[in-house]
């Protein structure tokens, strides 16, 4: 795992393969923008199952507060992590070459009752990072203020684009 940002990592961004990084890097970028410390690494549910289970089981004890897990195809990583931790898990369906990411989406979203994964859109890693920040922000007023400012910037940008259309 590679730690990024200042302080102990609060978010664990993990993925099934380094080939997921072009999609998953958006989660890291938004946490950088918001000043949230995180760690990032590859933890494959199928190729390194014991390490994956240990990672999930030890995450809370290591100080992590939210997991963001991305995988493609038979995307079992987010659900398996959720089965061995009580931390919130945000799942990112990574689109692969075939099936347009529908396989990844359905693998992640159709969890059995009792084992929740908060699934974002196909390729929606930026929203996954934002959701992780919102979860942390529920008990961190300073982070919530940064999230408020982020939302205000969205409104400003959308308003400016609308104005540009009219001019
Ligand atoms: C999944 O298999 C990974 O999450 C990745 O999306 C997909 C393909 O992995 P590679 O064959 O590119 O390593 O487990």
Characterize this entry briefly.
The chain is of the alpha/beta class and 167 residues long. The protein is built from six helices and six strands. The chain has helices at residues 21-34, 49-58, 77-83, 102-109, 125-137, 141-166, and strands at 2-4, 11-15, 38-42, 66-72, 89-94, 118-119.
Gross morphology is: globular
> What multimeric state do the chains show?
single chain
Describe the biggest sheet? 6 strands, mixed
Given this structure, which CATH class is correct? Alpha Beta
Q: Main sheet: which strands, in order across?
A: 1-3-2-4-5-6
Low-pLDDT residue spans:
none
* Amino- and carboxy-terminal Cα gap: 49 Å
- Mean pLDDT, to the nearest integer, reads 97
Number of strands: 6
CATH architecture annotation name: 3-Layer(aba) Sandwich
Strand content: 15-25%
Tell me the series of helices and strands, N- to C-terminal: EEHEHEHEHEHH
Radius of gyration over C-alpha positions, nearest whole angstrom:
16 Å
Structural class: alpha/beta
Helicity, as a percent range: 40-55%
